[in-house]
User: Fold these one by one.
Assistant:
Number 1:
Amino acid sequence: MYSEEQVKQLQQRTRELLSDGDVNEQKLAHLREVLRFHEYRYYVLSESLIPDADYDKLYKQLKAIELAHPNLITPDSPTQRVGSNLTKTFPTVQHLVPMLSLENSSNAEELADWDRKAQELTGLQEVEYCIEPKFDGASISLLYENDILVRGVTRGDGVEGEEITTNIKQIRSIPLSAPFSKYGIQQIEIRGEIIMSKKAFENFNELQAAQGLSLLANPRNAASGSLRMKDPKDVAKRNLDAFLYHISYYVTTDGHTLAIDGREGDHPMPENAPLGTHSGSLDLLWECGFRSPKEEKQVVTGIAEVIRHVTDYEALRDTLPYEIDGMVIKVNSLALQDQMGMTTHHPRWATAYKFKARQATTRLRDVEFQVGRTGAVTPVAKLDPVYLAGVTVSSISVHNEEYIREKDLRKGDTVIIERAGDVIPQIVQSIPEGRDGTEEEIVFPRHCPVCGSELFKTEGEAVWRCINIECKAQVLERMIHFVSKDAMDIRSLGEANIRRFYELDLLKDVPGIYGLNFSAIGQLEGYGKRSIENLQAAIEASKQQPLYRLIYALGIRFVGETTAKTLANAVSNLMELKDKTEDELQQLEDVGIKVANSIYQFFHNEQNLELLKQLEDLGLNLQNHKKHNAGTDDTPLHGQTFLFTGTLSKLKRSEAEAMVEANGGKLLSGVSSKLNYLIVGEDAGSKLEKAKKINTVRILTEDDFIQLLGK
Ligand SMILES: NC(=O)c1ccc[n+]([C@@H]2O[C@H](COP(=O)([O-])OP(=O)(O)OC[C@H]3O[C@@H](n4cnc5c(N)ncnc54)[C@H](O)[C@@H]3O)[C@@H](O)[C@H]2O)c1
Ligand SMILES: [Zn+2]
């Protein structure tokens, strides 16, 4: 739709408009042109060229001009309609009631302004509001007739959307039928947001990365992109979720139509019926089996309480299992909502309070290549430092060669970066349209940047590796991992010390940790008698760490903490692992072909065996003491395997897991025929489904579990 030349011009114009905050009507045409362009990129191509906050800024400039000059408003101004994402992939259908956008507020002042307008329109001094999270995903509308889901539609341009019923049916939190008739409802249109939880997003990307496939940028893009996939099976794989938060229209079983959301109806609004208030409709949806923000919602009176609540909630943002980008504040009474009405763009009875931006634009200056403990070479992008959601970001991992190619990253590129939740920052995309020809291709090295030896790549893998076991980078990283918190936990010997001792030739490998020359260290600046004593004691104490910690500390590929525990429990002495075949290893919980092979290789490598011998001679514990104790009467769960899924309400997950282990049970990380008990909390997902298909798995509630322990 836009030529390359036009795109360049529009980008240039965008930059000019952003850097010039002046609000004057000369800018009107340019603002509209630029906003239309970015809406097209965002909604239709799903490839925005600027962060949302920049778009919002321009949109607000346009609004301000139009407010000052209402005569200049045109029906096709971006402020007069909802941005459209209609494509030709799916049939287009009409929503029963248009799906509008929301007005935005980004601070307390703007909320107060909005509240003032609400007071005017309702004639009330204090308005009752219902506040709920603004889920960051893609909106949909669902239609149920005679209790059956008959269609699902994207928002589209607000009036018409794309019919994606089959895809919607892949989402497990959307019931295919719901008992609306119990409430006298024959037909109902409801709305909500399709989201991808942080966990599902991580899992999905992990799988993609393992297969060398491209990663999704953020859960939001993931959700909206998934909805319009051609194969419903691909939709199912993404483990999407849905929050339903709005009833836009319904017809009662006796044929009345009710006016909700500005639609004409012949039935008066029920005063105290559950549908008299927005919060009541959330309860009703919940009762009908939908995941509505019933628990998340908060009803308050007056804007001061609203401001307090949204500020508090913003602080919780990272602790939620899904992404939210703000809060939505809605007038609670549906009668008042009706009275307030709507524009062609948004309802007047709601506003979105947007949280601090988590996207920013910056420049990618250079790429450095780091060598990890297993020799994997990771490219790290060096950026012009940019402040983003509480931290200054100046470097970001760009994963692997494939990723760089997929994202078409070049040195000198302008890039959009994002820091979603507690996830580490990511480059969402580069902006090729911003190039001026001086950008340079990123060339992946063929030799280790640290030791110079040739790099190798295993077929089907995305990473290049340095396989020189003596490679300085690897030696250092191995030692750093060995002493780390979840491994041998030698706190006073941190990364900085290891690097320093290594540079000074006081430490050259893992066994060297147990033969440190403390009198030499004592000569170094910064080491007093006390710190030397502490260091010595910590190193000595680590020799008695339980076996699983040592196994984890060895840094065997694919052996994380859980597998390390499984391995430790399978032997009474570490060296027994050397005698296990790959087949035998695979019999262990959670040990698949790849993991078994890696363990087997490790224990059949002369250098590794030599290392273990050295560690034993140095006095490290290679025995599994726990195993000898297990199986006695006071370990009632001996030999039983457990897995938790969903949110527990009485116990913390970590507590419950500790109880299992303390009673001799074992924890698994996935559902398989080796699992004895699945303990199911709230919102259990795929694990529960899978467990139901295996007859031997016993499914327990949290209470059952507590009872089982006889507590
Ligand atoms: N970067 C760009 O170039 C660009 C271009 C166009 C739009 N945008 C972004 O898109 C936004 C406009 O998009 P929009 O019209 O979808 O508006 P929006 O995302 O700001 O808010 C409206 C949407 O919020 C969602 N929502 C989530 N939880 C909700 C809840 N509890 N109740 C009601 N609604 C809820 C609904 O899907 C609704 O459609 C802009 O603010 C901008 O940030 C960016
Ligand atoms: Zn190397």
Number 2:
Amino acid sequence: MNQTDGKRLAAEAALKYVEEDTIIGVGTGSTVDKFIDALAEMRMKLRGAVSSSEASTQRLRKHGIDVVDLNSAGRLDLYVDGADESNRFLQLIKGGGGALTREKIVASASERFICIADESKLVDVLGEFPLPIEVIPMARSTVARELVRIGGRPELRQNFTTDNGNIILDVHGLSITEPLKLEQEINNIPGVVTNGIFALRPADLLLLGSSSGVRKVETE
Ligand SMILES: O=C(CO)[C@H](O)[C@H](O)COP(=O)(O)O
């Protein structure tokens, strides 16, 4: 089984957590694309979806799923999204697709966050995947200098603008042993919109797809 199959299995497994007549929060990425495709079969039973990116919005609409503004949706029961890495506490690195800020907003507005991924995403220590940080363009250099000061090697994501009109710095070389502390520290740098550590709001359940099926990992 390859990574794509693992993603598909996890995405399909998440479907059973979706309740009828609700508005569901939907993340971004190739795993979530598979979830949206699976969600299409129950579109008549859903009230709609709050989307975390323009890409997911387009895909949801293509399947006839109503996309609802978060401001009118109120608190959501469930948010489903992928991740670039997860540790066993379900603290995540996200933002490989550049949608981290909206993802963090929708995750924070949701009672339950189910993360879907293939088994390669489970790691002991976060940080092998370069940490994405959304930055206001005029602050690129000042933020980059601060990131070097804390031990990272920031690289500007080339030819990429976020849905919010900002840039992404991908930070290499961080071994993230204290995710909660680092999430807050980086978010305090002026010019940072948000960073891709999801520790203040970790996932509640991780569904990992692999050749032996779907493994459930819950917070300890
Ligand atoms: O955070 C994300 C997008 O901003 C994605 O969830 C993350 O990059 C995982 O992507 P994929 O499912 O394609 O492996």
